[in-house]
Design a protein that fits this description.
5-stranded antiparallel β-sheet; Rossmann fold
Length: about 575
Amino acid sequence: MNGEAAFRRYADFDAILNSIYCAIFIVHTDGRAVYRNGAADELKAELGVTEDELIGALEAQIDVVHGQGRFAVAVEGGMIICHLLPWTQAGQRQGSIIVAHISGKERCSAQELDNVIDVLEEIDAILEVVADGIVVADKNGVIIRVNKALETTFGIKRRDVLGRSMEILDREHSVCGELVRKMNEDPKRIVVSGTYKQKELLCTGAPIFDRQHRLKTIVISIQDMSALNTLRKKLEEQRLYTKSYMREISLFNGSGGPIVAHSPAMKKILHLVHVVADVESVVLITGESGTGKEVVVNEIYHTSRRKDKPFIKINCGAIPDTLFESELFGYESGAFTGARRQGKVGFFELANKGTLLLDEVGELSLAAQVKLLRVIQEKEVQRIGAAKPVKVDVRLIAATNKDLWSMVCQGTFRQDLYYRLNVIHIHIPPLRERREDIIPLVNYFLKYFNEKYGKEKEISPELYRFLMRQDWPGNIRELENAVETMIVLPSENKLTPSHFVGKGTGEDSGAAVKVQRLVPWKRAVEEMEKELLMQAYREYRSTRAMAKALEIDQSTVVRKMKKWGVGSHEKDKNDAI
């Protein structure tokens, strides 16, 4: 049961006691009245005495702490008959319940007295099983009842707080006292938060009214939120970690662009893609950078039986040998110095029941190839530090822009791994060998970027012919970037060859670098440096491959990319073939 349920039951208890015509006082062992019903107020008015005078007279004539039974007590204004009943909480006597009426005006039957005891025992039992701390106070904040959970939260004993001000519970921040003040100003349900001895508390106060709808009693439910907030923080940390993790491994959700297949070669590939999508065989996709290997992979995935399962991409060229095993296979908590406390799930386990793309597989070292081969053969992975391996069910696709068989002959790629990967081989020819696809691709990108940037650009026949004559060493990625540039930069809507700002690698090509205007030397060097990095990134996506193409150190590539912000933001566009 929670604090809300306890409040509702306490409201029922108050309503029951107020329905009894006898005056009812609950008196603490130190003589303070901590509860009275509506009839008690009527009794005081009829006798013409205050509550202190009435309780004082009772204490002078009977033992209100330990007494029990029926007594006649003389008070100023008349004689009253008192039924003294023990008031207990959690099995310990806390004082007495006094049921009183003026002599000669009997109002309570024996059954009603029994009902009073039953109601009090029931509410006591309910409060003790509530997980939240419960404190009941009068409108002035004087504590009437508390439960065991409240004793635990505040580290107090109920005998020390009953009949005392609410302020005693939270002298540090007065959360409960603040509730009492607010509820006296505007008696309605109020929620406040605060701390007590480094505990984070959520306090909910609810009013109980008398017969005239005046604030009479306040029930406060106090939840210790420390454990819950700690759990929330851990969940948030895990969410951020997972988000970062998913970003690192490129979890695909979209289907990518269409496969443009007008050439005989691409029509054959498209047919093969739909055939292999229905089987579970390993697929090896090869081709130069920018030919659209990733889109072919997407097409296989999204037409396969695993399309609703995880699709994980691993850039093998971006994972250092020292991290290969921990990234792909994961590790247990405390497996090595610097390991995350919660351990880490490897890429293979993340892709379980789904599809795993090993992009740039030709970049793997021989040591990494051995570890990968074992997983493919055994269909199981073993986290670093784990006692036993875990079975994984993964559809494997590998992609590379290298000639793996030549690497096998050179001894840089394992022959047994080559045969494991080369079950079904799809080779995507470069764009210069399938020129029939250039115009359809240009039209696709023209439509896409016109819609993206809100343009209405058109391509002239001269520009179509010019684009057809280019060799496109960067393949589709280069063509895509060229079309985007022509959509964005020129002010004219009719595009001609003069608007082309690419390399120009066909029969119309000239020097690789053209000087169109004079600029300061330093600025020219910086612009060329940035342009070279951007071009290399578009073509290779791997700092290792970029360094090789630019003939500089990989560390230099990383430093320069960071300097110019190259690769820091992926463009929001789909690839297409």
